[in-house]
Amino acid sequence: MSSKDNNETKKITKRSFFFRLIGTVLLFFLLDFILSAFLLSGLEKYYGLNSNSKVALIGHSHLMLGIDKEKLEKELGVSVAKYTREGVNVADRKVMVEQLINSNKNVQTIIYGVDAWSFTSEGLSANSYGQFYPFLNLRTIDDFIKNNASFADYWTKKIIRTTRFDEVLLSSAVRGHLGKWTNLKYGNVHVENLKRGLRNDEYRKVENRQENIAIFKETIRLALKNDMEVVLLYVPTIDLLEKVQQESFDEAISIFEQIAKEKEGVEFLNLQDSWSHEYELFYDPIHLNPKGQKTVTDSVAKYLHYNQGYLKK
Amino acid sequence: MLFNSWQFIVLFACTAVLYFKLPYRFRMLLLFVSSYIFYMYWRWDFAVVMLLVSIVNYTAGIHIGKEPNKTKRKTYLLVAIITSLLPFLYFKYANFFLENINIFLSAVEVKEPFSYFDLILPVGISFFTFQALSYSLDVYFGNTKVEKDFVRFGAFVAFFPQLVAGPIERSSNLLGQLRQNHNFSREYFLQGAKLFVWGLFKKVVIADRLALYVDRVFETPEAYSGLTLLIATLFFAVQIYCDFSGYSDMAIGAARILGFKLMQNFNLPYFALSISDFWKRWHISLSSWFGDYLYKPLGGSRVSYGKWVRNILIVFLVSGFWHGAAWTFIIWGGLHACYYFLENWGNKLLEKSGLEWVGSTRGYRFYKIVSVFMLVCYAWIYFRANTLSDAFLISKKIFTDWSQGWYFGGSTVTFVLSCFFIVLLVIVQLLQRKGYASLYFSKSKFHPILEYGWQIILLLGISLLGLSSNSFIYFQF
Q1: Do B333 and B399 lie in a common domain?
Q2: Residue A72, Cβ density class (10 Å: 0-12 exposed, 13-18 middle, ≥19 buried)
Q3: What domain range is B296 assigned to?
Q4: Phi first, then psi: what are they for B171, rounded to 5°?
Q5: Which partner for B437 in A4, A253, A293, B431 could form a disulfide, CB atoms 3.0-4.6 Å apart?
Q6: B1 within domain boundaries
């Protein structure tokens, strides 16, 4: 090193060096703990976990944008937990139901979001288990993640708690603390683009896989075993997606109908036919915009009001 | 092996501990082995290419050094250049040339085109080839001593902190430092760690986040409005800066911990006052490489005006071609050459009209910073676009199609965070420019507690908002 180079640096004593090093590590882990605890509490509020909710919504972004939790609470007069996450598959949802059973003791009805792609593996996030990272302290979640995540990922999340969050979870945590559940997906689906895509065979194919149907049935059994009623809710998806694959689409619907018919305590609320042709309700082919959300929430509230009698309880 | 991986942290920690524990005679072997482990973690077979390039240049250096005859020295140098460049040209450009030959053949209606080679570009080949070549050239020009220890020379070519994406080190700097015996320095450790953390933050928090938007838009530019394409271009300008300068900072920081001082590779390039200034601030190690080994041997600026124009064109076109085997990169280089000429003519015009004083006014300086940035951004379109037709489409739409509003990306939160981090980066860079915040190894003027707090925030930012990507943009070069 040149003498100029040496002049650039000030001598640091051994004591000061170790003090800084250990201080940095300790301070980092302390702040990591505080920040992650704050975010976790926000996330629990956002999802309605550890609350005394009587109704719980379980599903992915389709249901997340499809139901206005605050409106539903107002209409029914009961607390509603909205435990919905982007891209979760049927196996993830089973874990969500297990988690809900453990954390929310008062849940009487689970509204489980279904759609024609519920049993399709393609197209949903392959690493959706990552959304469970914040709950790594729970034994069931820990086991679930250990089985899915890589060794390095698992231990990174285990040791550094803030790594358990990503920006979606961070945003949900902040929304939870602020008490905001609004659907911000304003705008309308571009129907012409969609039609063009469909003509080019660019759409997610419905594929009713037996292993997914089995997991789904297990989830239903689990809820029923815990004295919960299950409403399988089909939040509408745009009808153009249905028409290009009518047969497999109908097959998925018939599975839900069959389960509802066979199992006591399970009902199937299908809003597809009522709204799937109203394109102004959609943000994109499968997600509703705020207008669509309001429309669907009204229907669900009315249904629960007449069929489950929550307003009377 | 990526810097943002546990594998690297383990390899680096083991190397650093052993490096300071071992006697000097074993240190080079340690660096040599660690560097090859680092490289072979990706593909072991391509390490052979690196080894061969090292052997060629090591041997050439010895022969050039002891050969008094100028012609023979030149022959050795040419053999070293050609042999070193062969794998580089083959892996990087063979398919490009075949593709263009096939286009020509189809134009003249030859029905059987050449089939393409099934090639994977060895990571960092452009970097280690140029680094090794700089040694042979330096020995030839008498700028460096001949290295007789092959292990040390091998460690110089493969030095793992900067192996796959630079800075492209000169033998006079790095080889000289490899000959010294470094003791562990607490000061260097802290300097290196700080720079590493800042580099990692730029990479995983800023660059990888911006990449989500940029990749999506540049994949199908026809689906987006001009405004969206403009935003994507601006995002890409920040992404590539954070990605590449982030890697450089991590490389320089890691090397600093081991006691080495690698050259500065970026010096706030988007505050450049001219295109020539931009190239003194962007990828400095490559610009100076081309300056020293291409531009100056061609005659530099001490030639007739026509030859100077030729020299500038050659340097920028070669630089573009170095970045990638595609016409988009060549046009990118060509655009920068054009900017260079325009700037030169503009300056001459100001001089002739007696308006040089304008150059020192604050408003004009601001105008120059903004205009240089915009011109650089325009050229980035060609650098990033997947095809030439995409690049033309993007250019056209940016200027003509503002009808559809703009696209927020897959997630509004990501978009908002991206904008927030760009603003944060600008603030940090303004503070660096004013000399308040540390840049490279300069001393920060902030109170140590504030600086310490900033480091903790960066670490928390990395753990909370860091994305894990699979690569760095410059790995492909």
Answers
A1: yes
A2: buried
A3: 188-476
A4: -60, -35
A5: B431
A6: no
Give a yes or no: residue B361 inside a domain.
Answer: yes
Q: Is residue B422 part of a domain?
A: yes
Q: Does the structure show a pLDDT above 50 at A1?
A: no
pLDDT surpasses 70 at B369: yes
Instruction: Determine the distance in angstroms separating the CA of A125 from the nearest CA of chain B, rounded to an integer.
Output: 14
B161 and B199 together in one domain? no
Instruction: Give me the amino acid identity at B153.
Output: F
Asked if residue B371 is part of any domain, the answer here is yes
pLDDT given at position B159: 93
The shortest C-alpha distance from B442 to chain A (Å) reads 7
DSSP label at residue B61? H
Give yes or no: residues B160 and B303 share one domain. no
pLDDT given at position B316: 95
As given in the structure block, the two tokens for residue A66 are 């499809």
Q: Does domain A13-312 have CATH number 3.40.50.1110?
A: yes
Scan residues 195-254 of B and list those with Cβ closer than 8 Å to A: 223
B63 catalytic per annotation: no
Taking CB atoms and an 8 Å limit, are B412 and A165 in contact across chains? Answer: no
Catalytic residue among B63, B182, B283, B323: B323
Least confident among A71-75, A122-126, B109-113, B466-470: A122-126
- In sequence order, what are the residues at sequence separation of 6 or more whose Cβ sits closer than 8 angstroms to the Cβ of residue B171? B134, B135, B138, B139, B144, B147, B156
Domain co-membership, B143 together with B210:
no
Is residue B12 located within the same domain as residue B130? yes
Percentage of the residues of chain B whose pLDDT score is greater than 90:
64
Number of structural domains chain B divides into:
2
Which helix (H) or strand (E) segment holds residue B35: the answer is helix B24-40
Please state the rounded mean pLDDT for residues A272-283: 88
Distances (CA, A) of B423 to B210, B380, B416, B463: 13, 20, 11, 20
Mark which of B154, B184, B214 sits at the end of a domain: B184
Specify the pLDDT at position B319.
Answer: 93
Q: Which candidate from B190, B417, B460 shows the least CB-CB separation from A167? A: B417
Indicate the pLDDT class of residue B477, thresholds 50, 70 and 90: low
Residues B74 and B124 in one domain: yes
pLDDT exceeds 50 at position A43 = yes
In chain B, the residue whose alpha carbon lies closest to the alpha carbon of A11 is B187
In this structure, the answer to whether residues B159 and B277 fall within a common structural domain is no
In this predicted model, what pLDDT tens digit does every residue of A61-119 receive, in sequence order? 888 899 998 888 888 888 899 999 887 888 889 989 999 988 888 888 999 999 888 88
Average pLDDT over residues B183-208: 93
CA dihedral A215, A219, A220, A221 (to 10 degrees): 100
* Chain-chain contact of A17 with B188 (C-beta, under 8 angstroms): no
Same domain, B349 and B365: yes
Q: Please indicate whether, in this complex, the C-beta atoms of B188 and A24 are within 8 angstroms of each other.
A: no
Final residue belonging to a domain, choices B184, B209, B233: B184
